[in-house]
Amino acid sequence: MRKFLAGAATTIVAVAGLAFAAPAQAASSDAESVQAINCHAKESVRIRQSKSTGSTALGLFPKGAGAECGGASEGGTFTACGYTDGFFWIAINYQGIKGYVALYCITRP
Known about the structure:
signal, 5-stranded antiparallel beta sheet, SH3b domain-containing protein, alpha+beta
């Protein structure tokens, strides 16, 4: 029960943070407009070309690695990092690889 409540609280905080974030730019330019906000991978996750698990994997964002992340925006649904039916994605630049990862697979300081 404690784990469930902690997960729910994390989700609420993440979604609440999105409400106060700057508006996302057009989907086609999200990956190019990554801001210099540091984030880290909770688990190893594939960097995708677009906001869909069916899109081309451009590389791997390894667990614990840091990257530049932009704002969150809606995309295709995913099951990753302990969440099911997630649909928020983050624009990321990891060692020159620009793409998207599932929101719930990253942490921010």
